[in-house]
Each structure stands twice: as structure tokens, then as C-alpha cells.
Amino acid sequence: MRNEIRFAALLLAVGPFGRPAAAQDTTSIDRGVRIGIIYRPGVRPGLVMLPRTGGGMGLDSVRIMVARDIDYSDRFEVITLPGGDSIRLAGSPTAKRGTGRRPGGTAATGGAQSGSTLNYPLYQALGADFALDITAAGDTTVATLHDIAAAGIRRTVRARLPRPGDPDFRMAVHRLADQALQAALGTPGIAATRVLFVKDGKVYQIDQDGADQKLVSSTNRQAMSPAWGSDGRQFAYMEFQAGKGWLYLQEMATGQRTAVSTTGTALDFTPAFSPDGQTLAFSRATEEGTDLYTINIKNNCCLRRLTVGRFSDNLSPTFSPDGQRIAFVSTRPGLPQIYVMAADGTDQQLFAPFDYGVTGSSNAPEWSPDGQSVAFHRDVAGTLQVFVLDVRTRTVRQLTSVGRNEDPTWAPDSRHLAFVSDRSGYRQLWIIDLDTGRIRPLLQQSGARLPAWSPRLSEASSSTP
Amino acid sequence: MKSVSLLLALGLGAAVIVGASCGGNPPPQPVTPNADSAAAAERAKQDSIAAAQAEAERQAAAERERIARQREADSIAALSRASEEVRTTLAAMIHFDLDKSSLRGDDLGTLDQKVAILQANPGLKIRIGGHCDERGSDEYNLALGNRRAQSAKQYLVSHGIDASRIETQSWGEERPLVNGHDESAWSQNRRDEFEVTSGGDNLHRP
């Protein structure tokens, strides 16, 4: 807030300016009610995207994408400058701490070094802790992160981006944004990630910024429950076929899919990869009920049954990031609730506490990548709400309360969750930031469900052949 | 019982038709006497009588054949009608309470009818599909649908039907019968469906 006020005052002094580029997406965001989230405005570092200087192929779209990624990271108070270069130009001659650097400079003659002179006190007055400059030098895109308080350049990231329109262009830009974020905070971002989801019985992928929705299902049979491999190169999912539930593994890059060797005899569903990628845990429904199994998918062997329910069902496994434990759903208390066990099936115990006869069904657990939390949904007064279990204290908190909210999936930063909500009138995908409580729509299409957020996608794992 | 009386009625009706067509045959016309030869006249008379009789017999035979064919067709139709009724009874769905897989009291009669049909048709094999409404969790509903199909199967097996004759499957909430987002739709969607997998060509009534 303080940043915006200061900025507004400054802009009044500067003169008329264009519409802030990134403000549009944020105005209609805060429709969700926050429960159990402590929102502390103003404690995040301020970041200003510097106005463009000079041209370059696709530079505008790069800048817009990076700015949006920085915004969607929810880790900064983003300070948006008007479209013109007036502030920068006005600032340059009075720069006091920029001594020793050549003033001016264009994209054609150089990147960070030559264009680094900033009026740091001016940006400090705006509330900025960082300033991010995106320029082009030949075929190289340069992201320069200025540390305002230190009055210098924190880091320069260079990337040769594919041409705009190239299938790999957007992911390359997202990686650039993640590098800039890492330079500022020392923490990797989540810009270069995707979400798999099911719509009309087919699996789709979409970038975390809502772009590039793409069909990844290769058959017309009904699919459910996509799950990412931990390297982001493959995913598993379930498909109805001949009255059974079949599990398939599919390569992201090639689309090639293979049936899991032991599948096809029963209703197999809810696959989950172990963090080392060796093991697939899944649920199998037979005449005895539904129980959890694991299979070694590297050697296609060693089917192992982890639970023996008899009169109860056990399903929806999710590995802890160290691979040592599996959280799952069990109906042993009557209604489904969240349980945990060692990865070999021993030491089964209740995980998320509940009041017998009071608490509603709890389902769809997913262990956070940092291992500290398990997100799930729980029936509250006849509708579903997203909850988070703190693994250490074994306490739960409710994250949502507007409409029906279900099937949460963690971003790799363990602070964002994608989930399904009908808060807008129909079921679609939303993203919530647990630290700020900010909620934004990921996909404004009806009928999307069962989202699965990817790990960070390296160049190799996300490239299109 | 109903089918037997129906068949009897059809048979009687056919007999009446046969009788009527025989009696309705015109009698042979007397032949004008030939002045030249009484013998010739007699012979001609005999010939024409024989011809008429042969013609009558031929017509009667054709009629009998037609009737027989008709009767056969009628009885096949009757049988397939009966088979269709049995099939409809067999396909009658049962329903469940929210988040429950236990059988409801008002559905036991429906299941008892299926027991009787399975007993009367030893070659018959069926598949039970368990379904859920959209309110529960998408993935949990696969387990719940499985339980619902198993509940019905266990009832049939406990009443003497061989377990190998009954397949089960779960569709979770993926195949709603009724598209809607209210209790009316939900209650219809929480169901078991029954379908014939083999031996369902000529089903007998129990």
C-alpha cells in the first residue's frame, strides 16, 4: 500500500501516464475469503520493472511475461511505472551513486554495464528494493537486477530466447523470470511450471500464467488423475478401458505412453510417483475393496500391497518428498480421513485429526514439496473446502470458504496451491498464495478438474521436439 | 402362467381359423350329365370331384402351413416379449443414500427378482456397475462406486447365485444418468446398473 501511495504522488509530479500494464489481472482477484491466513501487507520487498529502453525482437512480450511472473510469484510489492521513459530519463542526470558507470547506453550497444545508471534514490523513494531491467543485446536478452539500497547491480542474467511463437519461447522467458527472482531473493520461482488437469475426460496442460493450454491426452478414452513425475519429464494417469482402470505413463516431450505392467486386471487409479521416480504408488479397487499398492516402474516388477482394508477402502497415496512416508485416504474410521504410513506400508496411523461424528469426509491429500504440509479437501456443511495439515504439529487450518473448493495441488514453492473452485459460478481452476491469501483464476473454463502442478521444468524436461 | 395361457389362446385361435377355412371351402359343383355316355359322365364327375378334392386338400395344406408358420412366429414373439420383460426386470437399478454403499430396504425386492431370474436362467451372466453423484470427491467416488457394486453382488451371492456369474465395475461419478445439480438428479445418479454380459438371448421367466 505504501508503495502505491508514494508512487501515485510521484506520478502526479511527473505527469500523465499510461495504464499500468499488470494492474488488470489483480483488480478482480480478492473474491475469496481468507481463513487462517495472516496477511501482512507491505512486508514484501518492492520491485519496479524499469521502462524499456531500445528495441529488440519480442522484447515487449518478454517484459510483459516477466512482469506477470514476478507479480504471480506473490513475493514482491510490484511497482508499475507508466509506459513512457520519462522517469528514467529524468532520473539519469541527477544520479549520484551511479558514478563510475557510463551514462546512457542503448540496447544495441550493450546490456547491463552500459545501461545501469539508475537514479537509485528516486526508486528508493518509490519504495522499491529491486529494479528489474529487460534489454536486448543482439540475439541475447539481458535481465539486469538492481539492488536499490546497495545502489548497484545485483545480477545480470543473459538468455538466448527462441523466437516469439516458437513452442519453447514462453518457457524460456519463464525461466528467465525465475532466475531474476532467484537473484533477488535466493529462492527459486515457479514461473517455469505447468499444471496438468482433466477436462471432458481428457488431460490438458497449461502454463502457470494461464497461457498455452494444450491437449496431452492421446486417446478418446476417459482419463483421470494425472500426476507428475518428479523430474517433470513424464506423468502418470488413469484411463477407463474395458470396464477397468488402467494406469499409463506418458512422456511429456514425445507423448509416448506405456501401460504400467500390472495394470488392466482391476480398477487401478490415483497414481503417485515416488520422489526418486522408481516407484509408482496407486489405488486398486477389487472385490475386496480398494487398497494401496506400489510397483517398481523402472524394472516393471515387484507389485506390493501396502494396505489390507477388508471392510475399509484405502486410496489416494502421496509421497513425502524424502520418499519415506505415504499419506493416503482411509475409510477405516467410517468416513474417509487422512492417514499416513511408512512407504513400506508399516506404521499406519491417523494423520489429519478429526472429530468423530462431526468432521466430514476428507480426501485428495497432496504432500507439499518442502515436506511441511499436506493439502487436502474436507466436507464442511455439505460442500468441500481446502485444508492444510501442518505435518509437525498435526494441526489443520481451513484455507477456503467461498463455494466448493477441492483437489488442491502444490506449486514447487510450497506456498501456492492450485485447486478447483466453483466460486465464480462454475467449476474452474484457481491459484491461492498461502502467504498473502491472494487468489487468482488459472483457467476460466468450466469443467476443469483434478489439477496437478508440475515441478520446476528444466530446459530438457519442457522442450518440445 | 401368463405365457402359458397366452400360448393356449393363440393355439385355440389358430385352430378356429383352420376349421373355418376348411368349412368355408365351396362344395364341388354337380357336372351336367353327358347324353353320349353315362360312363363318361360318371368318369368326368369323378374326375372333377377328385380335382376339387385335390384342390381343397392343397389349399388346406397351404393354410395349415401358413398357420403353423404364424403360430411359430407368434410364439417366438411371445418368447422374445417374455425375454424382454425379464431383461427389463433384470436391468432395474437400485439406489443408495449419500456417501453410503449399504443396500436400502426398498431395493431388496428388486434384488430378489434378479436372484429369481438368475436362478431360472443358469447360463445368464451379468455385470453390476456402481455409480455416484457429483457431490463427493472425484477419486474417492471410484472406491465408493466399487463398494456399491460389491454390495449388490454380495446380496446376490448370499442368495445362492454363483459369484463367477457376476462381474462388477465402478464408474465413480463419471457416468451420470441425469445431468443436474440438485437432489433429484443426485439421488438418481447414486445407483447400481445391471447389464447382461452373456446368456441373455432367450431369457425365461422365473
Secondary structure elements and their pairing?
The complex is a heterodimer of chains A (465) and B (206).
Chain A: H1 2-14, H2 24-27, E1 46-49, H3 59-72, E2 77-80, H4 86-91, H5 120-125, E3 130-137, E4 140-147, E5 152-159, H6 169-185, E6 194-199, E7 202-207, E8 214-215, E9 223-228, E10 234-241, E11 244-251, E12 257-259, E13 267-273, E14 279-286, E15 289-296, E16 301-305, E17 314-319, E18 325-330, E19 337-342, E20 349-350, E21 362-367, E22 373-380, E23 383-390, E24 395-398, E25 405-410, E26 416-421, E27 428-433, E28 439-443, E29 449-453, H7 459-462
Parallel strand pairs in A: 1-2, 1-3
Antiparallel strand pairs in A: 3-4, 4-5, 6-7, 6-29, 7-8, 9-10, 10-11, 11-12, 13-14, 14-15, 15-16, 17-18, 18-19, 19-20, 21-22, 22-23, 23-24, 25-26, 26-27, 27-28
Chain B: H1 2-23, H2 38-91, E1 94-95, H3 108-120, E2 125-131, H4 140-158, E3 166-172, H5 183-189, E4 191-198
Parallel strand pairs in B: 2-3
Antiparallel strand pairs in B: 1-4, 2-4
Unreliable stretches of chain B: 1-24
Largest interface, C-beta within 8 A: A-B, 34 and 22 residues
Instruction: Record the strand order, biggest sheet of chain A.
Output: 2-1-3-4-5
* Rg of chain A, alpha carbons: 24 Å
State the helical fraction of chain B.
55-70%
The CATH homologous superfamily of the largest domain in chain B is called OmpA-like domain
Spell the H/E element sequence of chain B.
HHEHEHEHE
Total beta strands of chain B: 4
What is the CATH architecture descriptor of the largest domain in chain B? 2-Layer Sandwich
Major β-sheet annotation of chain B? 4 strands, mixed
Distance between the termini of chain B: 10 Å
Q: Order of strands across the biggest sheet of chain B?
A: 1-4-2-3
Report mean pLDDT of chain B, rounded to a whole number: 84
If helices are DSSP runs of H or I spanning 4 or more residues, what is the number of helices of chain A? 7
The CATH architecture classification of the largest domain in chain A is 6 Propeller
